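Example 3.2
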Amino acid sequence: MAEWLVPFDGRNHSTSIKLNFLWNDGPIFIMDNHRAAMWCWMNFVKESEQFGLFHVDRHYDALFSEKDYAHVPLDGLEKMDIHDYLSCGYDNEFFAVTPVFRWDNYLGLFIERYRDKIATLITATHERGSEPSGNFARCYPWDFPGTLDRLNGEWIFNLDLDYFCSRNSSGEMEQIFTDEYIFDFAKALAAQISKETIKVLTISLSPECAAGWTGSEKIMKIVGEGLGIIFALPEK
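Structure, written as C-alpha cells:
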C-alpha cells in the first residue's frame, strides 16, 4: 500500500539538506532529492550478503569526507527511523548543525560502509561531482534499455530524473531525452522489479536540476506510466 513516509511539504527548494517528501509503495521510493535514498535501502541491505548498485543521475553524489563518516552512527544505522536519519548531524564552526546525510554525499558514505557487500557498482551520469572511490563501470545513454534487460542477481537501483535533463543555450534546464526513451527505460525497470532482480528502486525528482517542479513532475508521470504505478504530488 502506498504511503507518505515524509508528508508532502510543498514545492519548496530542497538545497542539499531539506527533504520535501518521501513516498513509498513496496520496493519503490520516490522523493524530491536523494538525501533519503540510503535509508530506503537499509531493510534490503541488512538482509543481503551481496548485491549490485546501479546509479543513474546527472551527478555522482559520491562526495566523501572522513568528518562526515565519523558521525555516521554505524551500529544503529540499519535500525534508524526516517526522522532520526534525517535529523542526524553534527555541530560546525558556524554554530549550526551539518546534516550527516546530504544529497551530495549519501552515496559516498554508503559505499564506504557497505563496500564489502557491493558486488558491482555501475554509474550512468553526466560525470559531474566527485566520482565513487574504488572500481565501477560506466553506462551511457545508448546502453539503455538493453543494459537493464540483462541485469541478473539482486540490485539496488537509484534513479535521479535530472539524468534526463541538461541546460539549453539559454542556460535553462530542460528534458533532453524523448518521452518514448524515458517510458522504455521505466518499463525495463518494471520488468526487473517484477522478476525481483531490482529489490529497491529509489527515484528523485530533483526539481532544481531537472527543469523545475513542472519539468520533473512531467518526467515522473512518464516514469510512473512505464513502471505501472499511480503517483502524483498533491496540488498544494
